[in-house]
Amino acid sequence: MSIPNLLTLSRIVLTIPLVALLYYEPKEWAIWSFAIFIIASVTDYLDGKLARKLNQVSTLGKFLDQISDKILITSLFLVFMFIGKVNFWLVFLIIFRDTFVSGIRMLAASEGVIIAANYFGKFKTVSQIILLCFLYLQVITNWDITAFVILLQWIVALITLFSGIVYVSGYLRNSERGK
């Protein structure tokens, strides 16, 4: 297995301890969870960069990268929702968008149309990671940044929604060409 794919798989594996550490109350554990999250986020950047540099871009790697991102991000948002730091509607929107876009991509693939990842999807992931960092800071430091976190939730929601619309419109454009 290639190094980029191992990095991607590590993100899936790292999700387990970081969720467990965050879910159980002591602030010290949340600090360890945050540290693991930073490491996992760095692997998200490195896996693709290394795959391109080492000429090891693969279908498996592209698949695992999407899955590992969704496992990591969704798991953390669910925990933050359970501990009362993020709103249900945002978690619902993230899960709905990711599931719908994955379905659209599978449908397109079954029709021989490839809808590649794009900058809007990457921007969505980065915006979600930024929000997660501030949620961690809120838990670890007890800073009262609730208003800022609420604003970030709305920004992330809009970016998440917009990126989903971009994928759907890309599918519709490509499927129209095939007819």
What does this protein look like?
It is a single chain. α1 (3-23) runs parallel beside α3 (59-82) and α2 (27-53) runs antiparallel to α3 (59-82). The protein has one domain: Up-down Bundle (Four Helix Bundle (Hemerythrin (Met), subunit A)), CATH 1.20.120.1760. By secondary structure, the protein is mostly helical. It has 6 helices and no strands. The mean pLDDT is 89. The protein has helices at residues 3-23, 27-53, 59-82, 88-110, 119-141, 146-177. Belongs to the CDP-alcohol phosphatidyltransferase class-I family. It is found in: Membrane. It comes from Kosmotoga arenicorallina S304. Its main location: membrane.
Outline:
Its EC number is 2.7.8.5. With 179 residues, this protein is an all-alpha fold.
Residue stretches low in confidence (pLDDT < 50, at least 5 long) are none
Helix content: over 70%
Contiguous helical run count: 6
Q: Termini, distance in Å?
A: 39 Å
Give the biggest beta sheet. none
EC number: 2.7.8.5
Membrane topology: Multi-pass membrane protein
InterPro entries: CDP-alcohol_PTase-I, CDP-OH_P_trans, CDP-OH_PTrfase_TM_dom, CDP_ALCOHOL_P_TRANSF_CS, Phosphatidylglycerol_P_synth
Enzyme class: transferase
